[in-house]
Structures are given as structure tokens and as C-alpha cells.
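A common beginner's mistake is to predict each chain separately and then try to dock the pieces by hand. The better habit, illustrated here, is to supply every component at once so that their relative placement is modeled jointly.
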Amino acid sequence: MRSDPDRLRFEIVARDGDARAGVLHTPHGTVETPCFVPLATRGAVKGMLPAEVEDLGFEMVLGNTYHLMLAPGEELIAARGGLHGFMGWERPIITDSGGFQVFSLAHGSVADEVKGRRGAPTSAGGVLEIAEEGVRFRSYIDGSEHFLSPERSMEVQAGLGSDIALVFDECTPVHADRDYTARSTERTHRWLGRCLDWHAEHGPPGQAVYGIVQGGTHEDLRRESVDAVSAAGVDGLAIGGTLGRDKEEMGEVLEMTTGLLPREAPVHLLGIGEPDDLVRNITLGIDSFDCAVPTRLGRHGMALAPMPERRYRYDVSRAAHATDDGPLVDGCPCPACARFSRAYIHYLCRADELTGVRLVTIHNLAYIEAIVSGAREAILAGRLAAFRDAILAGAAPWEAG
Amino acid sequence: MRSDPDRLRFEIVARDGDARAGVLHTPHGTVETPCFVPLATRGAVKGMLPAEVEDLGFEMVLGNTYHLMLAPGEELIAARGGLHGFMGWERPIITDSGGFQVFSLAHGSVADEVKGRRGAPTSAGGVLEIAEEGVRFRSYIDGSEHFLSPERSMEVQAGLGSDIALVFDECTPVHADRDYTARSTERTHRWLGRCLDWHAEHGPPGQAVYGIVQGGTHEDLRRESVDAVSAAGVDGLAIGGTLGRDKEEMGEVLEMTTGLLPREAPVHLLGIGEPDDLVRNITLGIDSFDCAVPTRLGRHGMALAPMPERRYRYDVSRAAHATDDGPLVDGCPCPACARFSRAYIHYLCRADELTGVRLVTIHNLAYIEAIVSGAREAILAGRLAAFRDAILAGAAPWEAG
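With all components supplied together, the output reads:
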């Protein structure tokens, strides 16, 4: 681990058990943790403008190396002030490495696994070759051939100019056996070294690099991976790879993995962020999260709500909501719930009106933000366990304090 | 004509030739004219929230009887404070009668004609019968059978609680012959009487009613229609029906028709609102306009611009714009142009990102608003002809003053 005040500095301001409230200091300002990082996969949080994302309380977004290298290309973005300038977001940005996307093309995605689907590629593109040097694949946009490697991923992320870059890794699938996972994790560590070598020579001075802990569901492999990543001189750690077949196994893998982590490093959990995941994993010491859930559910008219028995969501377009004059969630202080009824949003979603998607997306993002900022308050007050238990029992985040 | 201060009062504050600057006083506040009325066809300006529409300078929106009666139904809306309460728009609302939509199913739409298409129904629904009593048709949503008549249209609009209702009429197509147009226009006048009779007995006290002038491209029929509508005791007039095969004929028909209108009544032009249409017809004395152009073009990545030779628009997603660091239109003060480059919006539109649609829609609405508010300023200063000529010659609205 390293801590370089000219790029990333992680200040822990309070601890509550293994959890901590902190501040990430980056060249584009500070981020209070624990935090949720909305996806700006292709340079925009879906349907939202940057000022609106900021107004909801978010301080960092996540851009996607894989999508942005295919279009419009990192050179075009670099020439426009990097991703900050291109998309008009002046606060911190984290970029993922593209590893998750290219390996999802080959293996099926982690999201598929958690949802009980397996193996099927989730995109029209395709992987041509996975080798020590890197991964050759076809663009899902036009079928053109592309290559991603540790060096190329860091080069793209340098062009994007993110505050935090992620190293290029293989995201191992749950159906990989121990042998495959062990060999893949070792290769991920070799790739980590290549990423850091490239970055030391060519990376933007202010850009921090997080290493990614792999190792699947195997404790010894996770331990080896934590040791390798920590020793490599990264600015923070991200937890990647499969976390098991269901939420129970995910909880065990994350409890085991977080127990191995260095105590002072900032830790990001990749791609996980449902309400119960957030409070459980903040308790384990995770500092930041990204996840498609709030925006993707919004596009499908699914509103987040304090309903643990229904995975914290309901379908606004169901007939039962047609005449409901309450807001999406009672007591919710978000801009959608403050002004619009469930009946109106139900109607818009049924009519496929973009305004409906926007209102549910705004609510979902605000709901997630209320959970992570509520958790931060709880850590500062030394009562995170009670906050977590209240969320898990079905309290709304603004009532769980 | 009537002018009842308890519902609509039209105050003319300045004249410049046949044009006028005015104020519509309604139960939900005032509207400065000339004005453009964005479409909230199904209870939302596409992709926008009410506060955003207001922030762009609009004071009135237009809801659609046909769509809102099919879903969610006017009873549901009436029980939620009418369309104002349901959609959260506290300013004036005008509702159209549904006549245009049901006759478009039978004839093809006026928009199709102006664009050189003809005859094809524009929706999956269908008209079952057109009779003196009214029109039977199938819902485009679920195929269920519905009936619209003068009384039923006014009943729906009463439920919607608009500030200005439009009478139920037949929108005659350009390919109708003189005989059909004459008979249709006479029936429209009988329907006008039935609308006003129903409204006098059951209409909401504050709701004004505009009659619709038909008569196709025939001067004698337009004159008869103006006389019939003016004599019927309406609060304002709208110009409907075919305006000819192209913009040249439209100009002639509108010059002829506006020359016949009573001098003090507010006049609305239905469904027309491209930049050149606005300045030409404001010059002829039209006070308000509605049109799908700014929002529909926005959804297709077409940005309004001072390019008369290209129908005042260009396709942002064309490759030429990929590296253009300027705004959608140089000097445009709209929120999209103030913060985002053409290259960024180009990328979002190519990537089918909702944020791209929103940015072009915001720009287009702001561009149209700048034209009508610029025209108002010009009327107040007695130099509308120069403003019109500048817009027609390719000046941006903020430079045309």
C-alpha cells in the first residue's frame, strides 16, 4: 500500500467496529465515505444531468473503460479535458478497467450469477482470445476487433483522466473451478504489476490506482490476492470476482475477505449495491460501492422501497398503484416523492413516458444515497449495527437512525 | 365572441401591424403572448419535469383529450385535482378536443401532409364509424372500443379541468374535395353548438372554450367558419384543418384566414410551430402555437438552429459533429448549450443515452421560446417585421432583436 497526498489520501474520521467513516481526498475534491458511486458507464448517469446527480448528494461517479474506449475513444475524450471535461462533471471520477466487461462476454456476468442465470454472454460483442498478453474481442457496436491488456487499460484510463483508476483483471465466474480461479488470480497479479509499471511511467500524476482482490470463494486464494495487491503499492483495494452463488455465500465470502484487508486502505466493492448489501458491507469496512441497480431498476419502473421481503423494490406499473395518491415511498424526501404521486408515475411508466423513467431513477438514486449517508451518520454516532438491523428489518433509511 | 373575466380575459398590450403582444388571464395565472405551448400529450412534456418546463420560460402546456381519456381516464385525473394536480403543473393548461387524433386515424395526419406523406393512419388504433353523433374508434392501447362526440369531448376536458378547452371538430385533410370539406365544416359548426350547450350546463366555471375555424383551403368556407365560430359565443378561436400541401400554400391560407378574424379575440394556431411558421404567423396576428416539433426532433437527435435552408435543424448524430467543441448553437443561452459540447451530445445521441435526448429537447424548447419571446419584445418595440425577416434570413433569435 502507498498513500500519496498528491493523488489519493484516505482520511478515516471515525470507526464503529470494523466500519469507518472517512474522506477520500482527490485532485477533484473530496468524497465522504461510505459512499455510493452512480454509474456513468458511457459518460452519463442514465437520463440524468451532472448537476442533478450532485444535487442528490453524490460526490463521485464511475465511468467505463470498455464502453468509452469503443466510443467515442479515449483520445477524443482526453482532448476535451478528460472525462470530467467531456461530460461536465467536475467532482471525482473512478474508472473501471474494462476487465469485468470483456470477461463477462466470455463467462457471463456476475450479475447473472447473483440472479441465478449463468454462462450466457450478455452482449452482442464477443471475445476472440484470452491470453497472457491480454484479451482480443469484438466491439458490440460495429464488430470491429479490439485489444485490452493491462497497459492498454491504463492507457485508456490515463486518457479519461479519472481520479481513481482500477487495474485490469479477470473477473472470475462462480462456475470456474478452483484450479482455473487459482491460475486466473495469479495472472491477475501479474497484470497488476504490468498496470502499475505502465502507470508509474505514463500515468497522470494525480491519478490513483486501486488494485483488485480476486480469488473467488476460496479463502487461501483471497488471502494470497490481498497480500499480493497490498504489497504492490496501490492506493486502495477493490474487491472483485465471484462472491458466490447467492447472497448468503456472498456474505460469507465478503466477511472472510474484508477480514484479510489492511486496516487503513480505502476499499471499494465492485458492482454490488442493493440496500441490504450496502448496510451489511459498510459494517464489514467497505468504503465505496458502485452498482447499476438504482438506474437500471428505474428504467424498468421498479422503485426502491423498505421491503426486505421483496428485495427492496416494487413494480410501479402494477395495476394496484394506479390510484395510489401517496408518493413512491411514504416519507421519502426525494424530489420525485416530494411532488409526484405514485398514481402519476404509474401512469407515466405504463405509457412509456421518459419522464416516468426519470422520476423512478431520481427516487432510486436518492434512496440509495439516503442509505449510505445514513450509515455514515450512524458510524459517527457509534450506532451502525442498529442502523443496519433497522434497514434489514424494513425501516426506511430516514427512519433507521 | 364573449369575454368573461371569470375565465379567460385577453388583454392586448401592444400592436405592431396585425401582430399583437398580449396577456391571457386564466384561473391558473397569466400567459404572455405570443407564446408557444409545449405538448404534454400524455400528462408530461416528453422527458421533462414541470419545473424544468417553467424554468425554460413556458407558461402553458397542452394536454391531449384523446390520449388521456384512453389512459388513465379523465375520472382518475379529475379525482386528483384535474390535470394540473395530476401532473404537478400549476400554471395554465389548454386541452385539445381529441378531434385531430380520431380523424387522423381515418385520414392521416396534417403533419403527414405538410411532410409530403398522405393517407396512412398514423396509429395502431382505428376508426370504426364517423357519424353525426360522433366517432367510434378502437383504442391504440388495447383495442377496446371508445366513442368521442362533442359532449363526450367536453366532458373529458371538464374532468381534466383545463383553463382552455377546444371544441370537438373534424380536422379536414388536404385530399378532401371541396364538397367533403364544406359538409364537414358545417357538421363541425353543429358540433360547436353541441359543445357549447354541454359546456354551458356542465362545464367547470373557470374553463374557457375556443372554437375551431375549419374550411380547408377555401376562402368562402373559412369565412363562413370564422363567422359561425365568432357568433357562437366562444372565448377564443383556434385555426384547424388543412392549410394546404406545402408551406407556400399554408402561408396563403393563413394570411387569408387571419384576415377574416375578429380583431380582439385570442387566436391559437393548432399544431404548427417551426421557427419560420412562428415568426410569419405572429406577424399575421396569431397569439399562441402548439407543436410537437421541439420535443419530437429532440428524441431523434435533431437540434433546432438558425439554418433556414435546412428547415432550421440539423442531425447532431452526424459524424461531422463528433469533434465539435462548440455548443449545439453558437451563442445559445440555453442550459444545454451553456454547459455541454456538441461532441458530447453527439456521442450521447449515437449511444442512445437518455441524457442526450434530454439535452437536445431542452435546447429545442429553449430555442422556440427564444423566438416567441423575441417576437414579443419586437412587437413591444414596433419592429416585428425586422425580427421576422432576420429569423427568416438565418439569424439566431437572440441576435434578431
